[in-house]
Structures are given as C-alpha cells and as structure tokens.
Design a protein that fits this description.
- With 307 residues, the protein is α/β, with parallel strands linked by helices.
- It has two domains: 6-97, Beta Barrel (Elongation Factor Tu (Ef-tu), domain 3), CATH 2.40.30.10; 108-265, Nucleotide-binding domain of ferredoxin-NADP reductase (FNR) module (Rossmann fold, 3-Layer(aba) Sandwich).
- 30% of the residues lie in helices and 27% in strands.
- It is built from nine helices and 16 strands.
- It has helices at 29-34, 75-83, 118-130, 150-156, 175-185, 198-209, 244-247, 258-266, 269-290, and strands at residues 11-16, 21-27, 40-44, 52-55, 58-60, 65-71, 92-97, 108-114, 134-141, 159-164, 171-172, 191-195, 214-218, 234-237, 240-243, 250-252.
- The strands form four sheets. It has a seven-stranded mixed beta sheet, sandwiched between helices. Strands 1-2-6-5 form a four-stranded antiparallel beta sheet.
- Helix 5 (175-185) runs parallel beside helix 6.
C-alpha cells in the first residue's frame, strides 16, 4: 500500500490537554467512513519518520475526519507535538487496522479508560450505547488538571465514575476502585472493556476475575508494519502467541500474560532514550544555528583606538 500525498491528511484541529497530551483531528474521508470502535491507524509524520500505531479516538463520517490523542513521551511523538499544527499535514495515515471490537449482545457493560486510554475507550462506550446497552464509564487520571472529555462520556454513558489518584476530582483512587463500586451496585454486569497502561489493564482483569465478568483489553505492544510480518507485536494469550496488529488489538484480559507484555515493552527503553537524546541534541543545534550573529559594528561605532 503506497502512502497518499501528504496534502490528503491535513490537520484541521489541534487541542492540547496538558504539556504532553494533545489531540489531532485529521481529514481522511475514506478512513472516517470505514473506521469502527477498537481499530487503529499507523501514522508517519514525514517521509523519513517512524511508523507509529495510534488507536482511533473518534471519527466523524460526515465531516470526514478521524481524531487521534497522542502523548509526547518519545522522540517521534515529541516531534509531532512540536510540528503538527492546524494547516500542516501528516505524510501517511494507513488504516483502519486491527479487528473491530465486538459490540452487541450485552445489556450492561463497563468501559474503563486510564490516562491516555480514556481517548480510545470513547468510541467503545459510544458504540455500546448505540447498540442499546446500559453503559457505565470509569475514567482514571492522576489529577483534575489532566481530565479531558468528561462531557463527551457523560453524553453516552448512563453512569460515569471519575477517579483521580489525589482525589481532586471524583473519587480518590485507581480505576479499580471505580470497578469495585460498579460491581457492588450492579450484579448484572456482563462485560468490561479496559484501555490504558498495561499495569492498569492487568489490575482491571484481576478485579473482575473472581466475579467471572468477561473482560476485554486493548493491547499496545511495539508495532512496526501492522500486518503481522515483523512479529514485533507478538503477545502471549493463554498458551498461544498472537500478533496484536492482526489478531487484536482486543484480547481476553483474563488470558493475557501482562508480565511478558510489560517486559517486552521495557526492552526498548535504552534505544528509545538514545533516540530522544539524539533528537534533542539536533533540535538544540538547529536552534543555535537559527540565532543571528551579532551585527558588525559600523566604523563610527567601533571603540576608539586613539591614545
């Protein structure tokens, strides 16, 4: 598949939620028409850029746009944070990729998002509501200042439980505390969907295991081509090995080997750190070169050499 011209993927909206989290709304009518909850795209900011997978946080079929919420934690995402502005374009956007989430057949579901995972859990909550389910949303943030899209979730959830680590908004505690409250109140929950950091999704799976509530999680291993060719996104699901890009990204949370997933993610930290350092140094050099030299003094302005 060849990337289309960069002008095809214009950034029409940008919103910054914090100093590291930002939203890009990208014009891509064909992708917006085809996208479904749970799917992702692979993005290249420029021709020499890294291919990065990003879960689709929203899509508007009428406007022909998709929404991506990005956390600037590595070299490429920091570069995108710096360069991606309204009116600029992404070099390539490939998708939708992955198997869409199975929506339907359940009367009461819980949708859990933690941190950046709040964005991709939104299409799931909306889809479940459109399918006629009673939807309980549980969102987790470190503090009130990082909360985003609360109004969007209240519009599609029958109940919303907001959790913050410091208690500055909603209830104090992790999303697992919200899950406990939901289970205590609703004995008829049929499914829970969780998206967030691996350690959070692992906690969600453990919180529902004893109650035998079907728990689906969206995995985020390192991914290169998105077609199953590289094998970089392999994950252990029970006794089998799956590729998150083509077999997922949704999997049964009670079968996922989260310890293996987190170990694999940690193996690339040194390379990621080195890439960030090289990029930061390049940015510094460019900034230094951009500073104009001190203007030469005119003859009359030069210090006198008379004795």
């Amino acid at each position: 598949m060849q990337p289309a011209q960069s002008s095809s993927f214009e950034i029409v909206t940008r919103e910054d939620f914090s100093d590291v989290t930002f939203l890009l709304e990208v014009r891509h009518p064909m992708l917006a028409k085809a996208a479904k909850a749970g799917q992702f795209v692979i993005v290249m900011e420029h021709e020499q850029g890294e291919r990065i997978p990003l879960t689709i946080a929203d899509f508007d079929r009428e406007a022909g746009t998709i929404t991506l919420v990005i956390q600037a934690v590595g070299k490429t995402t920091r570069e995108m944070q710096q360069n991606c502005r309204v009116g600029t374009s992404l070099y390539a956007v490939v998708g939708p990729m992955g198997i869409p989430s199975h929506i339907g057949g359940k009367k009461k579901v819980v949708c859990v998002g933690g941190g950046l995972g709040v964005a991709p859990i939104f299409p799931q909550a909306r889809a479940w509501k459109e399918a006629g389910a009673y939807v309980i949303g549980i969102l987790g943030f470190r503090n009130r200042g990082l909360v985003f899209w609360e109004d969007k979730f209240r519009a599609c959830c029958d109940e919303l439980i907001l959790c913050t680590d410091d208690g500055s908004a909603g209830i104090k505690g992790l999303v697992t505390e919200g899950i406990k409250q939901a289970i205590a109140k609703h004995a008829d929950i049929e499914e829970l969907v969780a998206i967030g950091p691996p350690v959070m999704m692992k906690g969600c799976a453990e919180a529902t295991r004893a109650h035998k509530i079907r728990t689906m999680v969206s995995l985020n291993p390192v991914m290169v081509d998105g077609t199953g060719m590289c094998g970089g996104c392999r994950v252990k699901i029970g006794e089998t090995v799956k590729f998150a890009c083509v077999d997922g990204p949704d999997f049964d949370g009670h079968l996922v080997d989260f310890d293996d997933l987190m170990a694999r993610l940690g193996r690339y930290r040194t390379a990621e750190k080195e890439a960030m350092e090289r990029w930061t140094e390049t940015c510094r050099i460019r900034a230094d070169q951009a500073v104009p030299p001190e203007p030469a003094l005119a003859i009359d302005d030069r210090p006198s050499t008379d004795g």
